[in-house]
């Protein structure tokens, strides 16, 4: 089983990624889920620089405000590790390393970056396929603010899925079954055919655990849960 994952959140000045929305779509089945994560820490406990990043991404990118969300991050992470345990390949589209690093540390395994296979960005695919579907959260936001198109993780996953399946169908013979192996082979063939230099730009899989590869402690990505919202501070002793 293959899956496509998209993460929306905040990239901090130090490169650390704080997830806010996570979507998972099955590549070969009609199954999908998405979650909006509740704040892992009190907003005021972050530095001024981090708070600026939170406001920027909330206003300009995904439209989800810091207090929004009802899913506990720790429980969601454990759930994701469980449902993706038997996955053959997990695909993600990222043009920077912070999201990919976060996901690989979280899952304890490598994920495949569709950007390396020349997959277009979601904004381009949306126009190419004339296709847009969002989660309920982003549907309601778009009705309130029609002038802005926010990034929806669920919509992005479905666009990437459509592109991957299109590439795969162009690669295989008619009536051939699409499976995990044919998908990956089709992506490699697409890269080979469309790379101007005619060379594959895929690096070999690194050995070792993700924490060793990136020098990051997984606990640093999940700060201890304190107050949920701005005004929800612990009572004084």
Residue share in helix: 25-40%
**Largest sheet features:** 5 strands, mixed
Please give the domain count: 1
Strand content: 5-15%
- Averaged pLDDT: 79
- CATH topology-level fold name: Nucleotidyltransferase, domain 5
Describe the structure.
The N and C termini lie far apart (51 Å). The protein has a single domain (2-196), classed as 2-Layer Sandwich (Nucleotidyltransferase, domain 5), CATH 3.30.420. 38% of the residues lie in helices and 13% in strands. It is globular, with a radius of gyration of 19 Å. The chain contains 8 helices and 5 strands. β2 (17-26) and β3 form a beta hairpin. α4 packs across α6 and α6 (153-171) crosses α7. 30% of the residues are buried. With 237 residues, it is of the alpha/beta class. The protein has a 5-stranded mixed β-sheet with strand order 3-2-1-4-5.
């Amino acid at each position: 089983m293959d899956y496509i994952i998209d993460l929306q959140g905040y990239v901090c000045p130090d490169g650390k990624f704080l997830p806010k929305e996570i979507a998972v779509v099955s590549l070969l089945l009609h199954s999908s889920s998405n979650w909006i994560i509740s704040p892992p820490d009190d907003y005021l406990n972050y530095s001024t620089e981090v708070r600026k990043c939170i406001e920027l991404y909330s206003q300009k990118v995904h439209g989800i405000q810091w207090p929004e969300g009802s899913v506990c991050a720790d429980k969601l992470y454990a759930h994701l590790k469980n449902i993706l345990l038997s996955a053959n390949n997990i695909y993600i589209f990222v043009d920077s390393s912070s999201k990919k690093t976060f996901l690989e540390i979280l899952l304890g395994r490598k994920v495949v970056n569709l950007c390396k296979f020349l997959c277009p960005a979601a904004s381009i695919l949306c126009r190419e396929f004339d296709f847009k579907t969002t989660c309920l959260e982003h549907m309601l936001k778009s009705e309130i603010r029609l002038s802005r198109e926010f990034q929806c993780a669920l919509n992005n996953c479905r666009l990437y899925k459509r592109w991957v399946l299109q590439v795969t169908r162009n690669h295989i013979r008619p009536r051939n079954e699409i499976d995990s192996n044919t998908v990956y082979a089709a992506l490699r063939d697409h890269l080979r055919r469309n790379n101007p230099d005619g060379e594959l730009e895929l690096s070999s899989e690194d050995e070792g655990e993700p924490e060793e590869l990136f020098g990051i402690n997984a606990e640093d990505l999940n700060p201890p849960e304190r107050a949920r919202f701005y005004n929800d501070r612990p009572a004084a002793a």
